Amino acid sequence: MRSPNTHLIEEYEINPNTMIIQPLPYGLKVYSQIWELEEELTSPFKPIDIIKKGCRFFGSSYEGRKEGTRQLTGITHKAPITIDPTNFIYFFPTTSPTNPECIWVAQAHILYYKRTEDGNTQVIFKNKQSFKIPVSHNTFNNQLLRTALLKTTLISRIEDSERKSLYFFNGSRSMNASERAGAYSSIRD
Length: 189
Prior knowledge:
The chain is α+β, with helices and mostly antiparallel strands. It is 40% helix and 27% strand.
C-alpha cells in the first residue's frame, strides 16, 4: 500500500541513495516500491527489471554481473549483484530473483538487523527507517555475508589492478627518464 508521501515515477535509476526495492502488487501486475534515504517512490516495473536496468546503466548486463559474482565468490543461487563498483552499490535478493516476492536490499545502507518474534527480520537502515522483511534472520544474515564477500573480493581485485597499473606506469616513466639522461650525456661528450 502506498503511503501519502510516495511519488509515482515512470523511469528509475538505482543510485547511491537507493535502500530497498520491494514488489508491490498492483492489480494483476507487480510494481516496485522503492525507498531511498529521503523519499519513497513507486515504479510500474518489477524489482528484477529495475535491478537489470541498473546493471545496464552502469555498463553491464544482469547476467554478466551474476557471472561476475560466480567467478569472484563461487555463489550461484540468490547471488548478490554489483550494480556499480565505483559507487559501492551492491544489492542482494531476499529470495530467488525469479520469485515475485523477492525484495532487493542495498548492503551499504544497513545499520543493523534483528530477528522478529514471528521469525522474520527487522532491518534498520542508516537513516533510522525500519522495514520488516519476510525472511528468516539466518537467511538475511547469510545474504549480507555473501554480499560482503563479493564486495571485499571485488575491491581487492580492483586495488591489485590499480597497484599493478601504477607500478607499470611509474616503471615506464623512470625508464624513459633514464633513457633521456643517457641521450643527453652522449650529446655533452
